[in-house]
Amino acid sequence: MQDLSNADCIVIQGSNMAECHPVAYQWVTEARLKGARVIHVDPRFTRTSATADKHIPIRAGSDVVLLGALIKYILDNELYFKEYVVAYTNAATIVSEKFQDTEDLDGLFSGYDDEKGSYSQETWAYASNDGADDETPGTIGGPAAGHEHGHTKSERAAGDEHGSGGPALEHAKVLRDETLQDPNSVFQILKKHYARYTPEMVADTCGIGVDDFEYLARSVTENSGRERTTAFVYAVGWTQHTLGAQFIRTAAIVQLLLGNMGRPGGGIMALRGHASIQGSTDIPTLYNILPGYLAMPVAGLHDTWDDYLGAIGNKEQKGFWANADTYAVSLLKAWWGKAATAENDWCFDYLPRLSGAHGTYQTTMAMLDDQVEGYFLLGQNPAVGSAHGRMQRQAMSHLKWLVVRDFNMIESATFWKDGPEIASGELKTEDIGTEVFFLPAAAHTEKSGSFTQTQRMLQWHHQAVEPPGDCQSELQFFYELGRRVRELLADSTDERDRPLLDLTWDYPTDEHGEPDAEAVLAEVNGRHLTGDKAGEPLSSYTEMKADGSTDGGCWIYTGVYADGVNHAAARKPGREQDLTALDWGWAWPANRRILYNRASADPEGNPWSERKRYVWWDAEAGKWTGHDVPDFVPDKAPSYRPEPGTGGPAGLAGDDPFVMQADGKGWLFAPKGMLDGPLPTHYEPQESPVSNPLYAQQSNPARKVFPRKDNLWSPSGDAPGADVYPYVFTTYRLTEHHTAGGMSRWLPYLSELQPEFFCEVSPELAAERGLENGGWATIVSARAAIEARVMVTERMTPLVVRGRTIHQIGLPYHWGVGSNAIVSGDAANDLLGVALDPNVQIQESKAGSCDIVPGRRPAGDELLRLVAEYQSRAGSTVMTSNELRTGHPESTPDTRGG
Amino acid sequence: MGFWRNQLSGPTDPAADAAWETSEPRKGFFTDTSICIGCKACEVACKEWNGVPEDGLDLLSQSYDNTGALGASTWRHVAFVEQTSDRIEQARESGRKLVSLGMPSVRSGDEPALAGGGGTATATLTDTLTDNPVPDVRWLMASDVCKHCTHAACLDVCPTGALFRTEFGTVVVQDDVCNGCGYCVAACPFGVIERRSGNEGHEKGPQSHGISIKGAGGAGDTAKGSHQNQPAHASSNGEVKNVGIAQKCTLCYDRLGAGQTPACAQACPTTSIKFGDLDEMRATARARVAQLHELGYPEARLYGVDEHDGVGGTGSTFLLLDEPEVYGLPPDPRVTTADLPDMFRKAGYAGLTMLAMAAAAFVGRRK
């Protein structure tokens, strides 16, 4: 994070960093004081824009066009960092001849499957001589499973598996043309793909003028190269779209072309939304992955241990994911201890198997179908914080029981008596059978443990006071729950209870029953189980074995408890160490602060420049050294070349810096991993007042849609009825509140700073609709109508897109309807529908269509009639904007849902 | 008279004037509004540390400012000012005029105080990119606070001695001595100090929740023993302390005594609020304004550094990007007691004249 202060230029896009990450923003301030240029690209002029050198307003959801134009600018003007690109990226790698681009297929890549609404990725594969006939080269598949279809990958949101490196490949025997001239080379494909992303296209799509684009392009390119680096910063303004993952991929291409990855002041900073959101994917609270980004096994695909091992990594691919078997065995040993043996495949069959998509939104819909009996909410307030609040509350009213663990009586705990649906008459308290258990939670000062923050750094917090009354930590709650369930089952002979009964569940507790958090950390770190070192903590994940002689609950965290020391608790003040500050907290992997930092040195191992010196090869000592923990095999010389076909870490050449990628290279083109295309391409949001200027294909053809009566959409583009919801709305947070308000709307000092829900509109829109500053407005989407106080501000800029003025409305989403908070109000998220990105199944909450009118909304039945009247005028049906393929007269539009 | 003049106006060491024999270096703030991000962490940290109650829950419809003004229950206030290019142009113009009047502008031979590695390389950018054009919109944010004046009118007029000058040169109210007379409220040229009201807050609106905090489920739904969000300052019967008593920033006198930084400066994530010896604060401020001028922001200016102004300079120094009035600050604050010597002098002359006339009358009668 502090490395941002090394940047010469910082582009903050898809993030309101100053407001949502004010503490981290000190490093942007620091960079700026040192002379760096800071550019904020955002639909709104925010507190980030106020302290940036320049704010560039953009139409929500059009970022791929802007970044794609940047790629074209870099390629056309030959501004890419040539040595870096050739040596460190896959620019020279040859792709299968069967690959066809969206430019050839009017918005589709080759391999689109109308039946399944997703891609087969076979034609995107790297070419290979391996297994080829005489004429045409073959391709490199995934390990074992070959080319797994995008449909099954999407069902399990397989994109989440790439939280610590790229997807697995069959092997790394790629074909390369380092002159970059081969028409099937990634470099040439890239050139062709972005040929139409001109500054004029930017103006016509994003509403950004040619001068502003020029300013951005020059700032970024003039601040990149040997001597200088540019950093990108994003948050959920990029991710929460139906092609969110591709927004980030586009930035990755820009940064790889400019040579800004793995170098000080470079990279792409992903800002996570809460204190330990990074931790909650590392050691996941997700349905689809296991700790350390190991895949959750899928029924039919990973039925046997060998199937599973073959899918998560391959001994013939390069890099550290080739050792995935050691990580998986150590995990199972940590969970099931002595019960896990080679004979029973380390208890692999104790793991559940996925039978489909079970993300939060699918679960919500399953509740509506009475398929879910109970629900735990831990620090989550879906009645306010999740997309489509009405669907969330309706769904919870179908549960038999609901456990809410929180500090306060949040709206998700009281929706059954004071929610908006009670007020509108849709639900009646006496008809709701949900039994709600409210269990008070301990705050972070009342328990010990670690947060893993945005730069993968674990920071330990020590308990300062005992939790008051009945408040408990999550650790204690789940430990107790497990203990009691095991007690109940103690005499069971049922096979299905074995996984619970065989669990290692033996943490020491203090006099209040609180388990020792450090004991959990030690288990996460892993131990030697046999030999001289039996019982000692592992010091690195490279010590993990697949023979059951080690355990470890999350391989990427191994080392945090090396030598029995809690390194997450390291707190040497910054003034007593250098900027890298390796003695503050502990960052995974291996306490490394910048990933892929081998790329900060040239292929020979020397720093690219004195100014950007970071990690380099010390020829005399025969090892890598520098300001950070080198991200490379410590003693592998830059000149090292492996025998062709060598797999694993040994297969990495001395100049393969991307050690978690199956070919050791940074991927400009993603032959595997991305389910909606190997290259990012622009599609409009699910709901958009604008037609896609690039293709007849309006929106991401692989996105996940849910055609249902309670999930209607506005018509998009030129479709009839689109003018009923003529404005774009975008949702966001304010500094003064925390997400759905559970930690802020109950506190007087925060509530008084932003007491009411408001909407931000431009003076032009205010004039057009008769809105007054401080007055009320009603905002109507195809799902709901809500009311907000009006803030008329010059900070909202109408954008002109192809001659048409597009107004955007800003809606902070912190308020909810209930009776317990100090401040309450309508919830902005009620306006949203459910449409998801196919890679990671995140909802599109940053761009939607709405209308706005002056005055307060009606109540009761009249409110429902207002929403229905709009739907009827727009002619919205369950298929409106839900067709996956559009504008292809030769094919029937696909009508299936996700 | 010279002694009096030093006490009531112009440059002086206020702690020495207040007869501290072993005073500390004078302490103060430098608030650099050019790097303020308006997060209001200063407001919250101040209230948390000092136990200041909540101050009203009204949406003020003044940009993101729902605090309104400094007062008895608001000791830090972040102002939000939205401007379009015409107003920004005016701010630049007034800034240029100040520079021509001798405000610090182009850096002298000193090394740039804040420029780092990027400084030299910036020159490789072309001219058009280093230009600093007037933007369409800007959003000013500034955290205001008590000025801790060199010549503090509040202290001068206090009849009970509740307000006193500390060894750090700051001005502090003693709650238990104040009798609530309110002379200080009228005397403060900045409108900072205020008496705390009970049930109705200051001008902003009803002050309801500071006294009856709704905890976790006030309606009785609360599971036993969950967190009660009652701030430490509100007693169990829900009463606000110090009703009727004059209240303002103490510059965290209790923290200073323990060698700590005031809560607001400690919490500020961007170092917009700096704390330290006043001499250093003023030097840092001068260096920063010079840097901003060099970077093409002629609108930057300092507030409170002039020891010859109406309050003898302030202990809180500000770097502003527009005229003080834009932020709600008086352009030419003047201590209300500054005229006391003159008034005494004039009263003296008047008395002497009267005496002379009386004497003359007697003399005349003799004639």
From TrEMBL, chain B:
Coiled coil: none annotated. Residues 199-237 are annotated as: Disordered. Keywords: 4Fe-4S, Iron, Iron-sulfur, Membrane, Metal-binding, Repeat, Transmembrane, Transmembrane helix. PROSITE patterns: 4FE4S_FER_1, 4FE4S_FER_2. Pfam families: Fer4_11. It comes from the Bacteria. Signal peptide: none annotated. The chain crosses the membrane at residues 347-364. Residues 27-57, 137-168, 169-198 form the 4Fe-4S ferredoxin-type domain. Residues 226-237 have a biased composition (Polar residues). Its main location: other. SUPFAM superfamilies: 4Fe-4S ferredoxins (SSF54862). InterPro entries: 4Fe4S_Fe-S-bd, 4Fe4S_Fe_S_CS, FDH_Electron_Transfer_Unit. It is found in: Cell envelope. This is 4Fe-4S ferredoxin. It comes from Terrabacter tumescens.
